[in-house]
Design goal:
- The chain has 12 helices and 25 strands.
- By secondary structure, it is of the alpha/beta class.
- A hairpin with a 4-residue loop joins strand 6 and strand 7.
- The longest helix has 24 residues.
């Protein structure tokens, strides 16, 4: 059969690869994946790259369907009117449908000196740049990790387990997503590893210098190596292309993940903001949203009405070095509950999740359409409540796009 329908996927992360693989269900669809790197990055292992226990790279031949054409390039602009994507090498790639799966990365820190002297690790190249810096630093050199989310916790634990002197600056509270019981478990493990945890409003970073971190209460923490894990941002490709985005820059879509500007453009993963109520940034949601984005495109091709997004969560897992971890269970609406698995079993569960995530991609490449997920009907109720309260939300003091959850898996 002639492949007469062209679908382009921008972004070769968890969402983009899952979507590209799932699209191969139809023989008349040609799928092109545009990605800046020639290999798939296991982003949830970047802290292991920093610690030296993993390279966080998987070959695309292991996770991408053979029928998907991989273009190693950077998308610089989407021309919705012409249905084409401009790439950095100067060419254009045409499409009938586009899946926008550009993911997320380090947010630009507003703290003076953070850009110049702190090391972000949200991207492969950032983690690779930090690794030799740590190798060159004396074993006794103090390391400060800024950020209380999973990336900060995992990085602090990884380095402390290697014998580094680590301070984790939380700003507010350790592991904001965690239930208080799970949070106490993580705090105990970090204490065992010798990590100094600074919480509360006084633990807000006000400046970073070459050899120190300055806090809001006037304290100066000696820090020859400062690692910045506070916050995530998204690429500005959609905004630069004239598409509607939320306050963070995520592509605004309806509940089918279709752009509010163009029915030929569908979003997936961290850079999607369905109904201006984005889901938590995570590989867990990225794969499922990627699958749903592909289903939306496939239904449009078939002349059917796409279904609204319905995604339930099961929790969050955090590694605490190579010998311990925590699996924090959650309700389907992604709110943490009191149940968790810690210690060595928690580490095994985290490793199982990491391996299973890659396996989901490979399974979808081998048998497109096979991925299933749990549902959660509370999102529909939440959206209905928001619509009833729409006049109040029109208050210009309320910033759109900031009411959703964000954070790493």
């Amino acid at each position: 059969m002639v492949k007469s329908i062209k679908v382009v996927v921008i972004g070769g992360g968890y969402a983009g690869v899952l979507a590209a693989n799932r699209l191969t269900q139809r023989d008349d669809v040609s799928v092109t994946l545009i990605n800046a790197r020639p290999s798939f990055v296991e982003r949830i292992r970047l802290h292991q790259l920093v610690g030296g226990s993993d390279d966080a790279i998987v070959g695309y031949q292991d996770v991408l369907a053979p029928g998907v054409r991989l273009v190693v390039d950077t998308a610089t602009r989407i021309d919705a009117a012409e249905r084409s994507v401009l790439v950095a090498t100067g060419g254009t790639i045409g499409y009938d449908y586009l899946i926008y799966a550009v993911g997320s990365g380090s947010a630009d820190p507003s703290v003076p000196g953070a850009t110049e002297f702190a090391y972000p690790i949200a991207a492969l190249e950032e983690a690779q740049r930090l690794r030799p810096v740590l190798d060159a630093a004396p074993a006794t050199a103090a390391v400060t990790v800024v950020g209380a989310g999973p990336t900060g916790i995992e990085t602090a634990a990884e380095l402390a387990e290697l014998g580094r002197t680590v301070t984790l600056v939380c700003g507010r509270v350790l592991g904001p997503y965690l239930h208080p019981r799970g949070r106490r478990s993580v705090a105990r493990r970090l204490a065992t590893l010798g990590v100094t945890v600074l919480e509360g409003p006084e633990a807000k970073v006000t400046a970073v210098t070459r050899d120190a971190v300055h806090l809001g209460d006037g304290r100066r923490l000696p820090s020859p190596v400062t690692i910045w894990t506070a916050g995530f941002g998204v690429p500005d490709l959609a905004a630069r292309s004239g598409l509607s985005v939320d306050a963070v820059g995520r592509l605004l879509t309806d509940e089918t993940l279709t752009s509010v500007d163009d029915v030929r453009i569908v979003a997936a993963g961290d850079a999607a903001a369905p109904s201006d109520l984005p889901l938590r940034m995570s590989c867990q949601s990225a794969t499922r949203i990627g699958a749903h984005a592909a289903d939306t495109v496939l239904r449009r091709i078939a002349g059917e009405q796409p279904a609204p997004l319905n995604l339930g969560f099961f929790g969050q897992c955090i590694s605490l070095g190579r010998r311990a971890g925590i699996f924090q269970f959650a309700h389907r609406d992604d709110t943490a509950n009191r149940f968790y698995v810690a210690g060595r079993p928690g580490a095994k569960l985290k490793e199982f999740v990491c391996q299973s995530t890659v396996k989901h991609l490979a399974d979808e490449a081998r048998k497109p359409g096979s991925l299933t997920w749990v549902k959660d009907d509370k999102r529909l109720a939440l959206l209905q409540t928001r619509r009833r309260e729409a006049p109040a939300e029109a208050d210009p003091a309320v910033q759109p796009g900031m009411r959703g959850q964000s954070g790493r898996p």
